[in-house]
Structure formats: structure tokens, C-alpha cells
Amino acid sequence: MAAAETAANAVEQFTTASNKAFKDSFEKSLTAFSDLNAHSKKNFEAMVASATAATKGAETVGAAAVAFSKKAAEDHVAAIKTIAGAKSVQEVIELQTGFAKTAFETYIAEVSKIAETVAAAVKESAAPINQRVTAVVEHFQAAR
């Protein structure tokens, strides 16, 4: 009878230990899955924020390009009217040279402005992703 009682106690201890190990393992897995889900959600939110910033930047650049094109066309028409009223070939050459110089300077200034806008948009769209990468790296370093 003592041997049967000892065997029963051993089975009960084994069962209790197995159940506890399974429960602990399941809880750790559930916690890890929950953490993974939270990271995935934050990563998705970062991607949306990045795409939103990129879209905003593209819209800003597009609007600037349209405004510049409109202004350039108006300037060309005004220049043509001015040149058409010239009284001599020398005056035509002077007007045309002045117009070309002004148009080139305006173009260079606009390209610089658009380049700055693009750089700012790239920086702004990369920021959410950079923050997520930093957070993930910190999370893994803390887990070590």
C-alpha cells in the first residue's frame, strides 16, 4: 500500500509540475504574442504616418511647381509684350537678355526652394520609421 501511495504522490507531483510549467509557458507565449501585436500596430501606425508625410510633401512640391509654372508663363507673356514694343534691335537684345537672366535666376531660386521642401518631406516621412526602428532595437537590447 505504501508503494501505491508513493506512486500516486509522484504522479500528482508530476501532474502539478507539468500543469504549472504548461501554464507558465502559455502565459509567456501569450505575453510575447501580445507584445508582438503591439509592435505590429505601432509599426503600421508609423508606416501610415510616414506615407501621410510623404503625400503631404508631394502635394506641397506639386503645388509649388504649378504656381511656378503659372508665374513663369505670365512672365513670358509680359516679356513678349515688352519685347514686341521695342523700337530697335539693340533694345530687343537688351530686353531679351534681361528677361533670360531674370528667368534663370527665378528658376534657380525655385529649384532650391523645391529641393529644400523635398529634403524636409523626406526627413519628416522617415522620422516615424526611424522612431520605430529605435524602439525595436531598444526593446531587443532590454530583453537581452
Task: Name the helicity range.
Answer: over 70%
Q: Rg from C-alpha positions?
A: 35 Å
Strand content: under 5%
Classification by helices and strands: mainly alpha
Poorly predicted runs are: none
> What is the mean predicted local confidence, pLDDT?
89
Span of the ends, CA to CA = 51 Å
Largest sheet: none
Question: How many β-strand stretches?
Answer: 0
Shape: rod-shaped
Topology as H/E string? HH
Enumerate how many helices there are, as a single number.
2
Could you name the key traits of this structure?
144 residues, 96% helix, mainly alpha
What does this structure look like?
- The chain has helices at about 1-85, 90-144.
- It is mainly α and about 140 residues long.
- The chain has a domain at about 55-144.
Topology:
Blueprint: H1 2-84, H2 89-143
Quick summary of this structure?
This protein has helices at residues 2-84, 89-143. The protein is mainly alpha-helical and 144 residues long.
